[in-house]
Design brief:
Helix content is 25%, strand content 29%. By secondary structure, the chain is an alpha+beta fold.
Amino acid sequence: MNIDVKVPAFPDSIRTADVAKLYVSEGQLVYAGDILFDVETEKVVLEVMADCNGIIENVTIANGDPVNSEQVVMTVKQLADSEMPARPKAQSANNSTSDLAEQATVTPPLFSKFNVSLIIALAVGALVILFVLGK
């Protein structure tokens, strides 16, 4: 079954909006809750999410396009849960902990807070030595 994806309803004071960012393309697999596109008005950016699992079909918008309230901008061919591949999972807690440990052993950047203090101290020391030797 095909599901129409519409631009959200705007308040009466707003007539049109622009597509701020399109996150999907035709043929792409989406899961319920995935962000499909952002709509930007003068005052707010709205995220439009998929209501169901499926495949994106017939996208009629692009980044920057003006859209109207309740305009149909794409369709999603709804798929049953059994037809969907497993959603990619986030890394487990054990993997993320080991990743944090690896990141902690990385050499800090040259201008980290500690290194800036060290560089200033060395520069002041060098100036003092040059001043003392110059007299």
